[in-house]
């Protein structure tokens, strides 16, 4: 019992909880919610880990490809595995596929994000200018 207590005391919290991990579901949030969240995580932590089970794997791959194709991210690591879970309807154990994709910032990530922010601000100014002219 002492070994277990010692192991728990020495356990690194970041092993079980990572600040830069996004666990993706394809039922809870729209795709671009996760894309924008991943951008924010990369700004804060320089990298983001996207994780999904089963049918949500396609969503994670799509998010990673959007970030890569826009020049914002590079793949650092991809891990696939299976996870034992209990089937809710039948009550028996089943295996689910799992994927974890670690993405890092590209060299020009910050300037691309700054350019996108400037474009959004210009768009807002144009919208506000149009509103003032109409009234």
Description of the structure:
It is a single chain. A four-stranded mixed beta sheet has the order 1-2-4-3. Residues 1-16 have low confidence and may be disordered. It has five helices and four strands; from the N terminus they run H-H-E-H-E-H-E-E-H. The protein is of the alpha+beta class and 135 residues long. The chain has a domain at 21-107: Alba-like domain (Translation Initiation Factor IF3, 2-Layer Sandwich), CATH 3.30.110.20. The radius of gyration is 20 Å and the shape is elongated. It starts with a helix and ends with a helix. Residues 117-129 have a biased composition (Basic and acidic residues). InterPro entries: Alba-like_dom_sf, DNA/RNA-bd_Alba-like, UCP030333_Alba.
For the termini, the CA-CA separation is 75 Å
What is the beta-strand fraction? 25-35%
CATH topology of the domain at 21-107: Translation Initiation Factor IF3
The strands making up the biggest β-sheet line up spatially as 1-2-4-3
* The CATH fourth-level homologous superfamily of the domain at 21-107: Alba-like domain
Unreliably modeled segments: 1-16
- The chain-level mean pLDDT equals 84
**Helix and strand pattern:** HHEHEHEEH
Shape: elongated
Determine the number of helices (DSSP H or I, runs of at least 4 residues). Answer: 5
- As a whole number of angstroms, the C-alpha radius of gyration is 20 Å
Region (Disordered): 113-135
Biased composition (Basic and acidic residues): 117-129
Protein name: DNA/RNA-binding protein Alba-like domain-containing protein
GO molecular function: RNA binding
